[in-house]
Amino acid sequence: MSDALQELIDRHAIKRLKGRYFRLVDAQDWGAWRKLFTDDVHVELLGADHTVDGADAFLAFVRETTEGARTIRHGHTPELTIDGPAEAYGTWALGDYVEWPPDPETGTRRGWEGYGRYDETYRKVDGEWKIAGLRITYTRLDPLPRQQLPHGGPGVPEVPLRSFGSEAEEAPSAETAQDLLDIELISELKARYFRLVDDQNWDAWRGLFTDDARLDLADGYVIDGADAFVAMVRETLADARSAMNGHMPEITIDGPTEAHGTWVLDEYVEHASDSATGERRGFRGYGYERETYRKVDGVWKIAGMRLNYVRLDPLPARPLPERVAGLET
Which residues on neighbouring strands pair with residue 253, listed in sequence order? Predict the structure, then answer.
């Protein structure tokens, strides 16, 4: 195997490792999450004065501090350096949403939206990459609005929220150049999925699915067939603007024409304002999409999708200003 191919395989394995880090901590699957770290991991949480040594101690700390909380954590724009056969380091942009149960006396919300950076070191142990060091630097922590969000609201889909089961798997990472190419092609398929639905280019979007695609949108709400799914989404978003994003893919190639993957979902959907009151209608959605893929005539397509919303936050009712302070021209 060439050095270049080995480095590509290592880079993919580390990205997959970080994807599992976020998914498993959100699912609070502590046993599977523990396996992602070396036993002697060193963690700096809020600077060098607040450190935790050892994977067991770090897990216990995170488990205690997130007890009862609902979290959505994202990592973006990785910069990875492979230092040798078994050492590497990397940097990730951080975005997280953490909410505990409301204050029992006042009912006010408790939590934050955080932005910052992860700086990490990695070590290969028995052929598997693990996190050996972790430093979290927050550049901004915004407390959640204190007022309790309503359940549902104008423009918010009536679907049940459900936790995304960890569905932890020990599937091997990519091992060949063809695996890496297929993973890249599937990632670009998903990028087109988001871009084309935001553009409402329905004919092109239809081409991303197999004819017999099966879509599980919520408990008991299943759509069979790509034509029916596209028609439903087209009708739902007829008066809407959307900005849909997917992050932290974990893609496994199951064979020459079969694959599956998981994506973190972050979407913004705003329908036309209420014609009588001018109030906004729409939501911010957070969750996961688990998908299957099939190669048809040499092209990867989406063959199945299971959507899990963890949070659906209605947009504030007050209309947005025509201009944003600081951006006047």
Answer: 259
Q: What is the pLDDT along the chain (329 residues), one digit of tens a residue?
A: 788 999 999 999 999 999 999 999 999 999 999 999 999 999 998 766 789 999 999 999 999 999 899 899 989 999 999 999 999 999 999 999 999 998 888 888 899 999 999 999 999 999 999 999 999 999 999 998 776 655 555 555 665 555 555 554 555 566 788 999 999 999 999 999 999 999 999 999 999 999 999 999 876 789 999 999 999 999 999 999 999 999 999 999 999 999 999 999 999 999 999 888 888 889 899 999 999 999 999 999 999 999 988 888 888 878 766 665 555 55
DSSP for 275-324?
Answer: TTT---EEEEEEEEEEEEEEEETTEEEEEEEEEEEEEEEEPPSSPPPSS-
CA 208 – CA 185 distance, rounded (Å): 12
Q: What Å distances lie between residue 249 and 258, 288, 317, CA to CA?
A: 16, 10, 33
Question: Which residue type, as a one-letter code, is found at position 198?
Answer: D
All structural domains of the chain: 3-143 (3.10.450.50), 177-314 (3.10.450.50)
- Where do runs of H (alpha helix) occur along 200-267? 202-206, 226-236
**In the sheet where 110-125 sits, what is the strand order?**
51-53, 37-44, 128-143, 110-125, 87-100, 70-84
Cβ atoms of 253 and 218 closer than 8 Å: no
The predicted model scores a pTM of: 0.85
Distance CA 249, CA 260 (A): 10
Compute φ and ψ for 285, nearest 5 degrees.
-115, 140
| Residue labelled with tokens 């209420």 | 274
